[in-house]
Amino acid sequence: MAAPHFRDVSPMKNAVALVSGGMDSAVVLAIAREQGYAVHALSVRYGQRHTSELEAADRVARALGAAAHKTVDVDLRSIGGSALTADIEVPDAGGEGIPVTYVPARNTIMLSLALGWAEVIGAADIFCGVNAVDYSGYPDCRPEFIAAFERLANLATKAGVEGAGIRVHAPLIHMGKDEIVREGLRLGVDFSQTVSCYRADADGRACGHCDACRLRAAGFTAAGVPDPTRYA
Prior knowledge:
about 230 residues, globular, 5 strands, about 35% helix
């Protein structure tokens, strides 16, 4: 697949990118930087058990030249409902349907926070790393969701009504993990600095067995490059 294409932008135009600390969002940040955006990286501490990903997000934002990096606190543990935010065991890879690692409304909340910051800094562009090809069954990683949120953003904001409008970019949404790996390597992403595992330890070392680990490892294998992931 060819590298994602975006409309031309003026040098250093502001954008907000959701950066989780994982491999996908790191590649998205690098794509946005290559396209000439001054990227304001936004991470969310939502009560996730794998908090080492937030330390990874800070490393990634610094390494890839983000103009700023902000971490916002939202307590999703207070509503629970997910193996990532409640006392529910994270399963090994596999299973049918929407997995227990789905966090209710997480991407909607994160994109809403990104939308708010975008309005404050005068950014018309929001980037996120959702992926619908080899995603884990999450309904908020589908193209239909991104399109619907973009419509909402342009209905519900001053920027949408009076300004240039808001565009939500999901450049990885139709890419396989192997294509994401290759694109990241082309852009100079150091994947060893990222954390994807749902059960990562305090040092960011991966379990090697959960769905996130399985998809990540398969991507490096399919891309034909060594897996730099640090495993426990």
